[in-house]
Amino acid sequence: YGHDQTTVVAGLDFTRLKTAxxxxxxxxxxxxxxxxxxxxxxxxxxxRSVKQALLKETPSDMFTxxxxxxxxxxEFKNPCWKALDGTNQQRLFxxxxxxxxxxxxxxxxxxxxxxxxxxxxxxxxxxxSHYIDRARRGRSLRMNRAPDRRPLSFSTWANQGRFRxxxxxxxxYTEGDPVLFxxxxxxxxxxxxxxxxxxxxxxxxxxxxxxxNPDLIATINPKSKIIIxxxxxxxxxxxxxxxxxxxxxxxCDKPVTPEKFHRLVMEALETFAQCRISNxxxxxxxxxxxxxxxxxxxxxxxxxxxxxWLAVFPREQVHVIKFEDHIKNQAxxxxxxxxxxxxxxxxxxDLTSFMEKHNVANSLKDSKRxxxxxxxxxxxxxxxxxxxxGDLVEMLGDEKxxxxxxxxxxxx
Length: 412
Prior knowledge:
Elements: E1 8-9, E2 12-13, E3 37-39, E4 42-45, E5 48-51, H1 52-56, H2 62-65, E6 80-84, E7 90-94, E8 98-102, H3 108-116, E9 121-123, H4 154-159, H5 163-168, E10 184-188, H6 213-220, E11 225-230, H7 233-246, H8 258-276, H9 281-286, H10 302-312, E12 318-322, H11 323-328, H12 330-340, H13 348-357, H14 375-396
Parallel strand pairs: 8-10, 8-11, 9-10, 11-12
Antiparallel strand pairs: 1-2, 3-4, 4-5, 6-7
């Protein structure tokens, strides 16, 4: 390569930057374990051990197009590889170095904007690509929609965004270091933490999903870094109810009021209680039938989802942020994130200046908010969340994860 930045790396020509729209076919069929070398629960594809259950809900090119993890280009800090595209030309393909997986209404939009301001961090697409949770399962990008189309191909997703030129701009040679291009890319989709809806269509007869989003990301790249922001679960529900109604995410009865919120909360709790008669807590949290969009109750059950992420990723690869602490001291929080991502610290003056200009205020007018919650709403929700918060405190080893709410023994 020499020590000068070049448009040719590992024999790969970067002079023509190709976008997903230039592919001959952006869509694929779902994978079929019968087409691979499978033995029991797993199949071996391109040197990867892939769960058969995962193949059934992902595009057929997912693991045939993806190289073995140890064959990502050593010249790039970001996981990238070279391959032929749909027009039989060799191109650079990449998957995210890190994911902001949520949770919805926990400050992920501001986190995305400020991380993107770092000189070595790039977004592969707009915030909320929804590939891992929806498009790869043949679902539309809107919440709570059943699969109604062919899945977006993995090669299309791995090719999305003008990331090639951005990564090349991060060239820096250090003697003894094989990495020449130090930029990293992210996917910031806050529903990745919880949205596995309609998994039942792919795995009929199961009470719980045999695989979820973390299984897929860990199989794509076991070195992926995960960022998740958690907020007081009850306050997060209130924020979601207000936001989803104001921005027409679902058909709501306007204006929002504490009484309407209470009624919806009680309906959601009753649905969950009925599910628990015949299913596990995990099964009910993931059950599409319990996912009442209005209150977003299910997405606040952090312990169930986080347990699945920690089952496939080492703790040091999962950065858990307490939203309330983050907004009190964002500068320190973002410096901690830069250390977690193994990138240069932010210039403190530049970071402070950017945050001062960046509007982090809630965009809802007072007329779009509920001014308070009824005491009986809070009591019912605290009773529901107590065992799940107990699990979270035990999982993360700190009482702060109860948000001062009551906790009880395990929800299992």
